[in-house]
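Researcher: Sequence recovery benchmark, item below. Answer with residues only.
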């Protein structure tokens, strides 16, 4: 009996929600009105031929600020020049260079309330070691359980050239 009452109640609720979805119902009607009130939609200005309807080009990715896409003009680092053996299984292993090789754009991993971070820990003649980490969530804060793969930028003192990029993870900060 309890089960059928729940099913009927849920069905009635869904029926009401779907019946009202998408309708713009006025909260009051003018006195003497018996029909529905029709309000004309505001005219949307159409762009003139000189205006562009395309989004503005993306700005270069400033170091330390994650983004979802790889900045335009970035060049992929060959897989043979990436040492990702220290990364956990399933962690992205994608690196690009930009700005003449002085900026590394790295696909990182973050989740919930955390944000991906990266820093060049070592810049030797044959390799560049990048430590990837994630900020900790604040205490008593509700966070989603999603995983995101932003692109973070790390600035190098000199162009990458033929050096190997070594990716490592460090504890959350």
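Model:
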């Amino acid at each position: 009996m309890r089960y059928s009452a729940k099913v009927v109640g849920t069905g009635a609720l869904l029926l009401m929600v779907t019946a009202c979805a998408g309708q713009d119902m006025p909260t009051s009607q003018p006195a003497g009105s018996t029909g529905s009130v029709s309000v004309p939609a505001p005219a949307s200005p159409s762009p003139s031929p000189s205006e562009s309807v395309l989004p503005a080009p993306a700005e270069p990715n400033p170091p330390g600020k994650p983004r979802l896409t790889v900045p335009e003009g970035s060049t992929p680092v060959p897989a043979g020049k990436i040492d990702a053996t220290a990364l956990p299984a399933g962690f992205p292993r994608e690196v690009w260079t930009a700005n003449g090789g002085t900026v590394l754009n790295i696909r990182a991993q973050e989740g919930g309330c955390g944000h991906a971070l990266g820093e060049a820990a070592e810049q030797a003649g044959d390799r560049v070691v990048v430590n990837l980490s994630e900020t900790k969530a604040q205490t008593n804060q509700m966070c989603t359980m999603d995983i995101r793969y932003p692109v973070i930028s790390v600035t190098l003192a000199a162009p990458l050239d033929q050096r190997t990029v070594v990716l490592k993870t460090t504890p959350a900060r």
